[in-house]
Write a structure and sequence with these properties.
Strand content: 25-35%
Order of helices and strands: HEEEEEEEHEH
Largest sheet: 5 strands, antiparallel
Number of helices: 3
Strand order of the largest sheet: 1-2-3-6-7
CATH architecture: Alpha-Beta Complex
Bound molecules: nickel (II) ion
Number of domains: 1
CATH class: Alpha Beta
Length: about 180
């Protein structure tokens, strides 16, 4: 178990399609899962994918309990999701602000499906299947995109809605004071 270095946008390892996990309940997989959990906790992130710590496997972790980076969002149970499959349950999409530990300091407005079903396995090979909405659905789509080499700026439709967190906050404050 260890906090790992999070690699940043520009590193070609973030652009790869990752390999499925073929063996569950192994020492190597449990080490990877623990490294991801330790690393995301250290950064108060909502989620982290294996390629972000340089591991080319289809493994993500996510979860949200009283997170200072996301003070207004409902909680998401801490989840280890391996070899995930996502299915949109309808065509509805919603734009929401996202950040990424591999794109530090920046935020962008990203359209995502509002209602999805996702499935996969935990590190012991136990099947997971859930239907979720809104922020939970957004976090899962963001993390699973990492497994296909996609970072959130690639999903944006309006690059004017992309900027440094500090500046966006200042702008929002100025707007609310008007
Ligand atoms: Ni990310």
């Amino acid at each position: 178990m260890a906090v790992k270095k999070v690699i940043r946008m520009g590193d070609p390892r973030l652009l790869k399609v990752t390999e499925p996990v073929t063996e569950f309940n192994t020492v190597a997989l449990s080490k990877l899962v623990n490294d991801l959990l330790d690393t995301v906790a250290k950064h108060d992130g909502a989620g982290l994918a294996a390629p972000q710590i340089g591991i080319n496997k289809r493994v993500v972790v996510f979860g949200l309990e009283a997170n200072p980076r996301y003070p207004e969002e409902e909680s998401i149970p801490t989840t280890v999701l391996i070899n995930p499959v996502i299915e949109a349950l309808d065509e509805q999409m919603e734009a929401g602000w996202e950040g990424c530990l591999s794109v530090p300091g920046l935020r962008g407005l990203v359209p995502r499906y509002r209602h999805i079903r996702y499935s996969g396995f935990d590190q012991f090979g136990t099947k997971i299947e859930r239907e979720v909405n809104d922020f939970h659905a957004r976090v899962v789509q963001h993390e699973c995109d990492h497994l296909d080499g996609i970072l959130y700026p690639q999903r944006m439709s309006d690059m004017c809605q992309f900027g440094f967190e500090e500046e966006l906050e200042k702008a929002a404050e100025a707007e609310s004071e008007r």
